[in-house]
Amino acid sequence: MVKKYFYSCLFLIALFTLSSFSINDEVIRLDGNWHFEIDRNNEGITQKWYNRNLSDNIKLPGSMAEFLKGDEITLKTKWTGSIYDSSFYFRPSLKKYREPGNIHIPFWLTPAKHYVGAAWYQKEVNIPANWNGKRIILHLERAHIETRVWVNDKEIGLQNSLVAPHVYDLTAYLTSGKQRITIRIDNSIKELNVGPDSHSISDHTQGNWNGIIGKIALEAASPVYIDDVQIYPDVKNRKALVKIKINNSTLRPFSGKIGISAKSFNSSKSDKTQEILSKIIVAKSDTKIIEIELPFGKGMLTWDEFDPALYHLDVNLVAKGIENNKKVSFGMREFKIEGNQFLINNNPVFLRGTLHNCEFPLTGYPATTVEAWEKIFRKMKSYGLNHVRFHSWCPPEAAFKAADIVGLYLQPEGPSWPNHGPKIGLGQPIDQFLYDETIRMAKEYGNYASFTMLSAGNEPAGNQVKYLNAFVDFWKAKDNRRVYTGMSVGGSWPVVPNAEYQSRGGVRGLNWNKNLETESDFSSAIAKFKVPFVAHEIGQYCVFPNFAEIKKYTGVYKAKNFEMFRQELADHKMGDQAKDFLNASGKLQLLCYKNEIEKILRTPGYAGFQMLGLQDFPGQGTALVGVLDAFFEEKGYVTAQEYSRFCNSTVPLAKIPKFVYSNEENFKAEILLTHSGKTPLQNAVMSWTIKNEKGNLLSSGKFNPKTFENANGIFAGDIDFALSEITAVSQLNLEVKVNGTDFANDWDFWVYPNKNPEVSSSVYYTTTLDNKAKEVLNNGGKVFLNAAGKVVKGKEVEMHFLPVFWNTSWFKMRPPHVTGILIQDKSPAFNNFPTSYHSDLQWWDIQNRAQVMNLEDFPDDFRPLIQPIDTWFMNRRLALVFEAQVGKGKIIVSSADLGPDVQNKPASKQLYFSLLKYMNSPDFNPEKKLDMKVIQDVFSSPSREIFDTYTKDSPDELKPNSNQNKVK
Q: What does the alpha-carbon distance between residue 839 and residue 960 come to, in Å, rounded to a whole number?
């Protein structure tokens, strides 16, 4: 209890003292009520609104939408973001969602109000008399986007930053007494265009809001002041170089002393340095940069993901009548590259990352508190991650503070996706802006230990290689505290040769078009890269919407997209299956993430991955790719403990050639270990077990003790297990552990008899619904219809084993369209085919590329034995296998290729046996009765509801290259 209290106190101290601040500043917080007015016609400047009282009121910090300021959502709302699926605007079945009062935008979350343009904010402030002679600044944290400031009738200036506070020096404009401060904020996209899909501004994620969401304050301090402090750790030599910028705004020379010292504050171990003093002289109205070396002793603490020890640097500027102090948080760490490896304090580190896309569905804007960010980062870390990429945006300072505390390696980016509209390297304003913004990022956040990597943005267009080579070279020469890449890109983008590491696609994914295995890796694909290769946006495997999530949207945004999908599911007579669809598709999604991550971990020399993502992406057509929702909360089908078995600092791996066996074979596996720890695993013993579905132990073993250094795919030993004693169809499980630790991983595999017993059958097997089949049914007999390749109603729906990628809307219904299958696993039809309610690896040769049947004319409550889960943009009622009463008889219909003549598909063969045995048992008694014509129609008539894009492009006003997005 005492220990817990001690760490709680340390945490509270860390929250209070973590940021860089001046101890002797006087502050007037400007939170609260402000006068407000919308400037729809952009007339406020010419009409001098700064000289009159504004007519409305609002609270800051906050956004216009948060206080219901702006416009109602209509079909003509001018969104900031590309829409590639125009079908929503034309599909007859969606007409009701386009009606006034019932607008449901399916592409992203819907804000309470929407406004793009200028708005004015105004407040009267009483300036104390004792501020005379002091320097006074206005600090605006996270203003969105462009600000212009007036004091009374005097304009101070204009700022435009998406990454850093807007800071205005008001010293020359403020006197004691009442003063009026007016701020004009414009969130429209003008000549300076970062791209409408950039996560720094886009409605796809946080939304293009108007307001100020962080610290808003007037600060008074000494006219001779510490403007900037930058700390450059030298871990090897136990010292730090401290660069201090002193500004003298007075008309007299300044002569004084500056002292620096550091003390740890968030670790159970403590350390502090001696104070180092230096004289300093700054000429009148001048600036001086002083460099001081700060030595550390033998007790120096280093920062990494395992032990995120932090220091405060105290900087004291003292002279007669002048005192200015700063306290800056930093960590003693070195993040560098050696060959194709990242090193943290000379220790190899593998990056296990996800993207943060600015998902804040309650507010529509990013959190500016450490507590909020720490909650997110601790959730990420519980899932085995140690790295976060911020896609085309940079988070507020609170995120860096929280990551320092939690121990995460961050890759913020320049706030641009310069592709849909702007382009880089062509002399457009974005070229200089990315330099300006990243310089601001380095100044504001460069001391935070977690700020280890930097990218200029995401997936550019233009003269990108030349521009990004120069960008990387600029930063390598300027600041050695982190490593640099050009932009984060997909596999088709050109390589930027000067990038210190590659964050790119092209070497990712699962090749599940052939038999499944866990032997292959990405070695040959990354061999040409001599720098660290970090996989760009791996995963993107979809899961069905969680409609229970809708009630969580109690803030500015509503999940109108989810509401529409839920109603569409109900309209297609499957509303009661929503939770089952979520869980079944979720288990397949989890299986895919597990296998892709393990494939990367098996690859020697692979440096890391950046998932898209651990959490859902609420925009771009509603991309439900996360095992967590947009609130970073679990959906119910996987826990952090389960996920971190295959995504962690240490992960046992198994090279397995296949997952379905006959009992005449041996199960063979090569056991590996990937380790990325604080220290090597000394004399580690790895053990394994094979158990059946009842948990009975069938075999076990262990390997000789071995020391595992940090590396991927280190060989541990081999397993060879004869399956001859497995006489019944079985689902087995291989589990591998690192003894004495919590690190463990497991894999299911299936064993079928080499030859099933003959079934004395009265079932008529056929591949067409021919006259004999009809006669058998009319006479009370049984029919098995293998309709593989014969489906007409539903042939437009493509099912692969892999689920929907990203979502079908964003890619205009590009296949696959199915995201897993729901199986009535409790049915005796599966007595001889062990399965859960969701598809697993044994279903691959049954499910992959099989046709599906559209049951649009079947009774509303009809449920198939095996039900493919359609994309939620269509919600068609589908079947892979169904049973029914027809006439006096009974039938099973399969659009998967199941039958006595199927070759080289052991699971298909076994499932057919199980279904056939079921049909020849008293258990075969389908509940639902169908007319023969309904079944016949599946093989003769096309679906009535066919997806149509209606246009070849998005509506004109929404096109990425439309006038609204063009660079003027």
A: 39
What are the strands of the beta sheet with 660-662, ordered from one edge? 660-662, 744-752, 730-738, 686-692, 697-702
CA 863 to CA 827: how far, in whole Å?
12
Rounded to the nearest 5°, which phi and psi values hold at 215? -65, 130
- Contact between 294 and 240 under an 8 Å Cβ cutoff? The reply is yes
- Among 215, 198, 216, smallest CA distance to 207 is for 198
Per-residue pLDDT tens for 245-286? 999 999 999 999 999 999 999 999 999 999 999 999 999 999
Give the chain's end-to-end CA distance (angstroms, integer): 63
Asked if 162 contacts 136 with a C-beta cutoff of 8 angstroms, the reply is no
Query: DSSP label at 958?
Result: G
In a 10 Å sphere around its CB, with 0-12 CB exposed, 13-18 middle and 19+ buried, how is residue 815 labelled?
middle
Helix (H) or strand (E) holding 918: helix 906-919
pLDDT tens digits along 423-450: 999 999 999 999 999 999 999 999 999 9
Q: What long-range pairs does 863-866 form, CB within 8 A, spacing at least 24?
A: 863/577, 863/824, 864/824, 865/823, 865/824, 865/827, 865/829, 865/892, 866/821, 866/822, 866/823, 866/824, 866/896
Cα 794 to Cα 788: distance, rounded to the nearest angstrom: 12
- Give residue 12's pLDDT: 36
Residue 18 clears pLDDT 80, i.e. is over it: no
Task: Indicate if the pLDDT at residue 10 is higher than 90.
Answer: no
Tokens of 737: 């552990």
Residue 827's φ and ψ, nearest 5 degrees, are: -65, 140
For 407, residues 6+ apart whose C-beta sits below 8 A from its C-beta are 303, 304, 305, 306, 307, 308, 381, 386, 450
Pick the closest to residue 516 from 806, 820, 843, 744 (CA basis).
843
Structure confidence by residue, pLDDT tens digits, 721-777? 999 999 999 999 999 999 999 999 999 999 999 998 888 889 999 999 999 999 999
The DSSP bridge pattern shows strands 62-63 and 211-212 to be antiparallel
**How many residues are given for the chain?**
968
DSSP H stretches of helix in 195-257 = none
Residue 355 main-chain phi, psi, to 5 deg: -95, 140
Q: Locate tokens 């020890």: which residue?
A: 309
On whether the CB atoms of residues 11 and 3 are closer than 8 A, the answer is no
Q: Which of 6-15, 529-538, 559-568, 760-769 has the lowest mean pLDDT?
A: 6-15
DSSP state of 438: H
Q: What phi, psi does 911 have (nearest 5°)?
A: -65, -40
Mean of pLDDT values over 692-706: 97
pLDDT digits (tens, 9 = 90+) for 329-358: 999 999 999 999 999 999 999 999 999 999
Cis peptide, bond prior to residue 61, ω within 30 of zero? yes
In this structure, are residues 207 and 365 in contact, taking their beta carbons and an 8 Å threshold?
yes
Q: Which amino acid is at 831?
A: N
Amino acid at 168: Y
Helix (H) or strand (E) holding 10: helix 2-17
What is the DSSP secondary structure assignment for residue 936, as one 8-state letter? H
pLDDT single digits (tens) 645-685: 999 999 999 999 999 999 999 999 999 999 999 999 999 99
Q: What is the DSSP letter of 934?
A: H
∠ Cα 345 356 564 (to 5°):
160
Q: SS3 letters for 326-367?
A: EEEEECCCCEEEECCEEEECCEEECEEEEEECCCCCCCCCCC
Predicted confidence band at 950 (pLDDT cuts at 50, 70, 90)? confident
Alpha-carbon distance of 215 to 201, in angstroms, equals 20
| pLDDT higher at 324 or 230 | 230
Report pLDDT digits (tens) over 85-118.
Answer: 889 999 999 999 999 999 999 999 999 999 999 9
The H or E element that residue 567 is part of is: helix 560-571
